[in-house]
Amino acid sequence: MPSRLQSELKKKTAFASLEEELYLNILRTGDRLQIHLDRLFRDHGLTPSQYNTLRILRSEGEALPILEIASRTITAVPGITGLIDRLEKAGFVERKRCLEDRRVIFVNITAAGLKSLAQLDGPVQELQQQLLSHLTRDEKKIAIRLLEQCRAERP
After folding, report:
1. Rounded-to-integer distance, Cα 103 and Cα 107, Å
2. Percent of the chain whose pLDDT exceeds 70
3. Average confidence score pLDDT of the chain
4. Residues 6+ apart with CB under 8 A from 120
5. What pTM was estimated for this model as a whole?
6. Do residues 80 and 69 make contact, with C-beta atoms less than 8 angstroms apart?
7. Is 105 helix (H, G, I), strand (E, B) or coil?
């Protein structure tokens, strides 16, 4: 009997391994959940990476070097400078060069950036609740633990 993912993908043959099926399940699930967030952010003129950057800056409460922001993002951001450029153009962040090391540029969230995030706080929480509330508390904890294990570095 085909697995649920095999049916969803209309895949005629079995997966080559459990690892392949698990990996593709993770990718498909992430994609399906992300689509909903993408739409929400787009309605507010942001990309997921821009939203993530603003959340990082808000939670820190002070300016951060650009490379530190890049290291904290949920997904890899190859063009962090361009991302910051777009946020600055929108008035959501401001940059300041480090006086001790002019190669380092600090980024701080502006009042407009804070306001934009505040407008998204409720809708993001509601969407997460809508998408994941069918899982029990224990199932959510198990999923978190298993996904953390998947990301763990291997020797």
Report:
1. 13
2. 99
3. 92
4. 40, 41, 44, 46, 51
5. 0.85
6. yes
7. strand
CA separation, residue 11 to residues 8, 23, 27, 59 (Å)? 8, 15, 16, 43
Structure tokens, 86: 């777009």
Residue 89 amino acid letter:
K
Count of positions (residues) in the chain = 155
Other Cβ atoms less than 10 A from the Cβ of 70: the count is 19
Q: Which residues pair with 97 in a beta bridge?
A: 105
Convert 85-113 to b/e letters by CB count within 10 Å (16 or more is b): ebbeeeebbeeeeeeeeeeebbbebbeeb
Tally the C-alpha atoms within 13 A of residue 150's C-alpha that lie toward its C-beta.
Answer: 13
Name the class of domain 49-119.
mainly alpha
**SS (HEC) of 39-55:** HHHHHCCCCHHHHHHHH
Output the pLDDT for position 155.
62
φ, ψ dihedrals at 105, nearest 5°: -120, 125
What is the C-alpha separation between 140 and 106, in angstroms, rounded?
Answer: 36
DSSP 11: -
